[in-house]
């Protein structure tokens, strides 16, 4: 460890620039409270000052400590969970767009149904800020990486669409829904609503870790409770007369639940395989 004492503003600036240009992928933070700290604060990756510092130091910083300890900036868990939410949401929405573009002679899902599905999915993610985080993600600071988010979305999004297409094929062949004038179109839309909503809920379990969920890493109790509640609501919707009428749904045929169970099992397996491939290729997950 190297210590520096009694350095002037430009000397502090040189030290910070040297640390940042040293390589190694590290994140450089600087905490200062005086006028002579402003230059060094400005060039740091994490710019920190204190509430009792000079105005110029506080202006240069992007984090102001209100207490005399660093516990107030222990935001790694929150940051990782924020990245979880963004990657889940972007990849899932990309999947919806990708699937809606599939050619069908009827509308695969109504706009109100899709909005309600997204409302349920977003509601199920409400406790993600308090989710468990694997220790390896907390070992070092993580920086914002828009390219990583875009890569995750493009790589994972089409994977989910495989089972949307399976649902379309089930509607087409076993159920014979092939025409926009068919009286069974609401059934087809209900089937896709159920498949999309349930697989989105599994996404929360599958994507929150790069490991095997439940066996190697577990989500928080609050997420399990909330996703269980939302899944119960999803299955109940087609059987609530007034709500299903507003959403334009009909009761699924009993045999569809067998297809749905098989698709969910296949979904879990395929997503895990793609997750392993993604981590092998890009050496990252969250």
TrEMBL record:
Ranges where the Cation-transporting P-type ATPase C-terminal domain occurs: 107-277
Keyword DNA-binding: no
One GO-annotated biological process of the protein: potassium ion import across plasma membrane
InterPro entries xref list: ATPase_P-typ_cation-transptr_C, ATPase_P-typ_TM_dom_sf, Cation_transp_ATPase_P-type, HAD-like_sf, HAD_sf, P-type_ATPase_IIIB
Gene3D superfamilies per record: Calcium-transporting ATPase, transmembrane domain, HAD superfamily/HAD-like
Localization, UniProt: Cell membrane
Membrane topology: Multi-pass membrane protein
Molecular function (Gene Ontology), one example: P-type magnesium transporter activity
Entry keyword annotation includes Mitochondrion: no
Keyword terms of this UniProt record: Cell membrane, Magnesium, Membrane, Phosphoprotein, Transmembrane, Transmembrane helix
Chief location of this protein within or outside the cell: membrane
Recorded superkingdom: Eukaryota
GO cellular component: plasma membrane
Protein name: Ca-transporting ATPase, truncated
Organism classification: Eukaryota, Fungi, Dikarya, Basidiomycota, Agaricomycotina
